[in-house]
Amino acid sequence: MSEPTPLLFQPLRLAGVTLPNRVVVSPMCMYSAQGGYANDFHLVHLGQFALSGAGLVFTEATAVSPEGRISPEDLGLWDDQQIAPLGRITDFIHAQGGRVGIQLAHAGRKASTYAPWRGRGAVPTERGGWEVIGPDGAAFDPTYPTPVAMTAEDIARVTADFVAATRRAEIAGFDTVEVHAAHGYLLHEFLSPLSNSRTDAYGGSFENRTRFLLEVVRAVRAVWPTHKPLFVRVSATDWADGGWDADQTTQLAGQLLNEGVAVLDVSSGGLTTAQQITAGPGYQVPFAAQVKAAHPDLHVMAVGMIDRPEQAESILQNRDADLIAIARAFLGDPHWTQAAALALGVKPEVAAQYARSTRST
Questions:
Q1: Smallest Cα–Cα separation from 112: which of 19, 203, 186, 187?
Q2: Are 109 and 147 in contact (CB under 8 A)?
Q3: Per residue in 120-145, pLDDT tens?
Q4: Catalytic residue among 144, 185, 202, 354
Q5: Superfamily (CATH) of domain 7-354
Q6: SS3 for 330-343, per residue?
């Protein structure tokens, strides 16, 4: 009898969408858009991963409003004119047999900053910067913009922006939407006591600090087609005393499951310069495993320094996660999926034009 197919290369059905395998290209900011518009760079960059057989390819963090961009060069989906350029990408990935998702985001107090290779900290208005918003008036660090504390009206407006961007994502042909609530950006800022000093209904208790995210998720789920899965990315811990932690993440995960979230994408950090991260291969997997053990009906995606096929397969076999998100390893080798298949004894499923290729591990 032949060996069973490794879990990494078994399909996974999420709502009405079937992923051909469990390999996911994690959202990675490329800082290569102008005015929020996707261009040929994004088509080639994202398309190459589908050509090598990745089951699900995510866009980078895509801002739901102009002031929600991390940098002036971020992708956006706040305007109907931004739909068609993204549609080129979804059409191409679908033609290769892959699935494609979009990560919708608002950078909050970490907005209006330079792309990493252009500088650090706040972009001044004369260079395209803008006023930023956050839970309160505290900046991420002294080099970053000082945010304006959001009013209840601002919270309602941003929620509506997520909804409008979700509707555009459906028109653009995306198979899934991920709400970005990690890495110190706006929704994460509301979750953590270290960045949320509010005294109204959106600050203080766990219930209040999670309110904004749950409102956004509920509103997005209401307009996103029921046959398409909804993802949420969280930072499981701030890696800092008094901050958001794994136990709060696990509690939140149950609420997100009840709101119709199909997959929790478990990352960590990014909220504070005081973070003390102990990094290493698969260092975030225990957080994913904790959520999965507490909520077996919720699909969980592991991410963070997972770059070896055997490592990815072991995570799935241990039932620590259902999906494996990979970032930097794909930048180093866009054909990582093909190489992983060969390493695990599976015939790679790649585009016909690449069938003559031979690879070894």
A1: 186
A2: yes
A3: 999 999 999 999 999 999 999 999 99
A4: 185
A5: Aldolase class I (3.20.20.70)
A6: HHHCCCHHHHHHHH
